[in-house]
Amino acid sequence: MRISDNDMLELIAFTLGDQEFCVEVISVREIRSWTPATILPHSPDHVRGVINLRGVVMPIMDLSLRLGMAASEPTQEHVIIVTRIGEQTIGLLVDSVSDIFTVATDSIQPAPDVSRSVDRELIRGMIPMDDRMICFVELHALFETLESEAA
Amino acid sequence: MDMNEIKEIFFQECEEQLAELESGLLRLNDGDTDPETVNAVFRAVHSIKGGAGAFGLDDLVSFAHVFETTLDCVRSNKLEASQDLLKVMLRSADVLADLTAASRDGGTVESSRTSGLVAELEAYAKGQPLPSASAAPAPAPAAAAPEPAQAETPAPAAEAPEPTDDSGFQPVPFSFDALDGDDDLAIEDGRSVFTVRFKPRSDLYAKGNESVLILRELAKLGDLQVRCEADDLPSIDMLDPEGAYFSWLIRVETDQDEEAVRHVFEFVEWDSTVEITAGADEEAFAAPDAQGGDQPMAAVPFDLSLLEDVPAVSAEAAAPEAPAPAAAAPAAAGDESMAPPNLPLAAKAIAAEAEKKETVVPAVPAAPQTIRVDLDRVDRLINLVGELVINQAMLAQSVVENESGGSSAVNLGLEELQQLTREIQDSVMAIRAQPVKPVFQRMGRIVREIADMTAKQVRLVTEGENTEVDKTVIDKIAEPLTHMIRNAVDHGLETPEKRTEAGKNAEGVLRLSAKHRSGRIVIEIADDGAGINRERVKAKAIENGLITADANLSDEDIDNLIFHPGFSTADKISDISGRGVGMDVVKRSIQALGGRISITSKPGKGSVFTMSLPLTLAVLDGMVVTVANQTLVVPLTAIVETLQPEKSDIHSFGPSQRLIAIRDTFCPLVDVGNILNFRSDLANPVDGVALLVESEGGGQRALMVDAIQGQRQVVIKSLEANYTNVPGIAAATILGDGRVALILDVDAVVTASRGQPLSPDMMLAATG
Amino acid sequence: MKKKVLTVDDSRTIRNMLLVTLNNAGFDIVQAEDGVEGLEVLEESNPDVIVTDINMPRLDGFGFIEGVRQNDRYRAIPILVLTTESDAEKKNRAREAGATGWIVKPFDPSKLIAAIERVTA
Question: Where in this chain does the record put each Response regulatory domain (chain C) (predicted)?
Answer without folding.
Answer: 4-120
